[in-house]
Amino acid sequence: MTEQKRRETLEESLKALTIVEYQWMDAEELEFSQKVRYICRTECPRYGKSWSCPPAVGSVEECRKRCLEFQELFVFSTVAEVMDLENMEEVLKSKTGHERIIRKIRDIFRPYFGEILALSGDSCYICEDCTYPEGACRHPEEMLPCIEGYGIVVPALAEKAGITFMNEGNLVTWFGVLLLKEKKREEKNA
């Protein structure tokens, strides 16, 4: 199957999902910054409390190297309407639907790629209490690491992708990234 045909097939499957905008890109177009990690460390209450966030995900350089092992990426956005953008609890609750969509997209893409790394717009909340750092992650296959936790500059990514970074009104814009690795020759022939 050609890359163009694969994309067309996948995009047809995605029509049933509430994706607002999306773009295919080369993984090397990702921009990383220590400043993003600094914001995680100094402003995010999940820093050091989740396997999906720093420092558990590794240094920015380790995350960059991990991401650049993939050839392409699929970046997309979803939106959720909230009553009050200043109410962080309400904003974070709106993320649940976004994470379901990330997992659905990952499941749709799995037969077409050898490996997929899915990143979400916030810390993973599968478990009420994360085992970090005392025990191993209970759901490593379902966990969605945070895009910013990897040091990825989301506004720059949105601009390169031509995706709206901030929607107007009381809309929360959530981003998702799937890094995609081609199947190995023996996987394709299986």
What does this structure look like?
By secondary structure, this protein is of the alpha+beta class. It has 7 helices and 4 strands; from the N terminus they run H-E-H-H-E-H-H-E-H-E-H. The protein has helices at 3-14, 34-43, 60-67, 88-93, 95-109, 154-161, 185-189; strands at residues 21-26, 72-81, 115-119, 171-181. The protein has a 4-stranded antiparallel β-sheet, with helices on both faces. The longest helix has 15 residues, at 95-109. The protein is globular and about 45 Å long. The chain starts with a helix and ends with a helix. The relative contact order is 0.23. The mean pLDDT is 91.
Beta content:
15-25%
Kindly, what is the distance between the CA atoms of the first and last residues, rounded to a whole number of angstroms? 14 Å
Q: What's the rounded overall pLDDT mean?
A: 91
The ordered string of helix (H) and strand (E) elements is HEHHEHHEHEH
Number of helices: 7
**DSSP summary, beta strand count:** 4
Shape: globular
Strand order of the largest sheet: 1-2-4-3
Q: Structural class of the helix and strand makeup? A: alpha+beta
- Determine Rg (CA atoms, Å): 16 Å
Low-pLDDT sequence parts: none
Largest sheet: 4 strands, antiparallel
Helix content: 25-40%
